Amino acid sequence: MKIVQLKTDTELCQFQKETYKYLKVVYPMEFLKPNLVRGIFSDDQQMIGGYIVALTPPFRSLDLVPPQALQASSIYRELDLDLVLEINGLWLSPLASNRLYSVRTWFRLYQDIISSPKKHLVYVYDQGKEKLGKLYSACDPQTIYAGKTLRLPGIEEDEYNVVQIAPIDHLSLKQAAHFLFKKMMRRRGICRNLGYHVQPTLEQV
Length: 205
Prior knowledge:
Structural class: alpha+beta
Helix content: 25-40%
CATH superfamily: Gcn5-related N-acetyltransferase (GNAT)
């Protein structure tokens, strides 16, 4: 298994294609190119997962929120977007059935987050996934919005999501280890689509 940064048009097109299979979202190239895109590959060079780290606006997680609801959020109004990092498009293929794949993916994602000078992490996940919400609660998040979200470019169907923000300085190594332990116990060795169109997912990381 290896986790690499995808940079070329060919690599990013492959990410688009494979991500669509699991998230049913086609991330526009204009969103992928300026951001950090990671591809997760098996030993036989198949792409079995990936995620996007957006370091500068626009952030798709926030763009999902209806404008009136976004402006009504005191959390958003007080937010300095220059200090925000977004995780989006996180997925793992059922081919990644080895529990080690999941642990290595989450640890690489954790490294990408804490190595940034940003102070806030924003992500989105499916509102129907309550267990995922409980998992993310370890990050001490605040909810910016929960409900029906907008259809951004690349989204084919209506979605109901939760958009949250968490302080990056709360993501200590101890918390990360606790997060991974809960994740592994919840998975019980079964790899599944991580479900967030974050357009992350800390999971949809």
